[in-house]
């Protein structure tokens, strides 16, 4: 009899809970109207449908099937502009990420910060160092490091991918810490390792707690993911702290070179920060200044191998400006005469957006309506970068590397025509510095070197990996255009290699 009473009571509770849930769901659906949803599985939804890598082609297929707006994904530039740019005030926050932001980053990584006062404070600091007003600070370093890049391509052509990473990292390290990076610098390798650890864990579905926030309420000793997250945090903080400690030691000894770091450490802003917050300001600058530039340079090289027709047109322009017989390297002063190179760079940011194939999630902070849909606060949106970049509604022959699409009088408007730096108020604050990094590097590499396919190892541009574990994302043969171009690199770039500070 007692067992029957227990079963009856338990059944009654379950029925009441299900009834409450059903009532709330009906009320919720009456209040809100959502776009077409991708069919999932009970409880887990779409969590296990998202591939661990190569998410772009998967998300592009969803866009083709479900239209301009699907649950989470915005699949056209029109709706990205309408929501993430014109309504940026309510579409610019971030959803919680207990693992990647909470544990691995101690709530201090700006890319995942909610849209709040802390984000604005750190964003202001980033803007001071990375904005267009700071270009005069960066240009001498970009000139020096791109010459070193050419030297590395000449002397170590099989390590072109490592050379790209050293180049991008050394520019930002010079500005922020007053020191250069070498091709064999283990600190650079470790920085990219920590960055890729973050990117790996930020992939949808990798950490259940980031998808199912209720798990974050478990007692800490039951959170099986926490030890791994703490280990990644310790490794990341060690990489950041090593550079800050080295800079502070130079300041103590009076041997520092004035840079952003020396000035920042004396500001009132840094005195208000915790040690972790300070480390992540420096770390974010190192990561943001390194990754986008190295990946985009690689993408353009892949485009040169697979669509060599445009390379000939780029070379024709370079040869008119710099000479057919390798008279001199291109410079920033040549930029007004090198419109095609600017178009090449924009196409590089558009062509295969594999840094963020499905964009980055933003969270709506209050209820909103759009074209008949009613979205509740807390809805997560992302621009479907791959689907937009490869949509025939957006671009003619979208899969082709075709710089001519950007020869429209807006070659110098680096943000127009693609979403390579993100939309709205979450646009990458260092977009101009990153664009200039790529511009001077590509102008000089195209002028001095040929890029060809390795026999038997064709490049599949649709599957170039985002995470490479310190190896080249594809195979390519790098050779000087001619002996005169090789001599030009030896003559004009050797001094850059020997420069120390």
TrEMBL record:
InterPro entries in the record: Cyt_P450, Cyt_P450_CS, Cyt_P450_E_grp-I, Cyt_P450_sf, Cytochrome_P450_fung
PROSITE patterns, sorted: CYTOCHROME_P450
A single MF term (Gene Ontology): oxidoreductase activity, acting on paired donors, with incorporation or reduction of molecular oxygen
A matching Pfam family: p450
Transmembrane segments: 6-23
Coiled coil (residue ranges): 230-257
Cofactor(s) of this protein: heme
Residues annotated as binding heme: 428
Keyword Membrane applies: yes
This protein's UniProt keywords: Coiled coil, Heme, Iron, Membrane, Metal-binding, Monooxygenase, Oxidoreductase, Transmembrane, Transmembrane helix
Gene3D superfamilies: Cytochrome P450
Similarity section: Belongs to the cytochrome P450 family.
Protein name: Cytochrome P450
Native organism: Podospora didyma
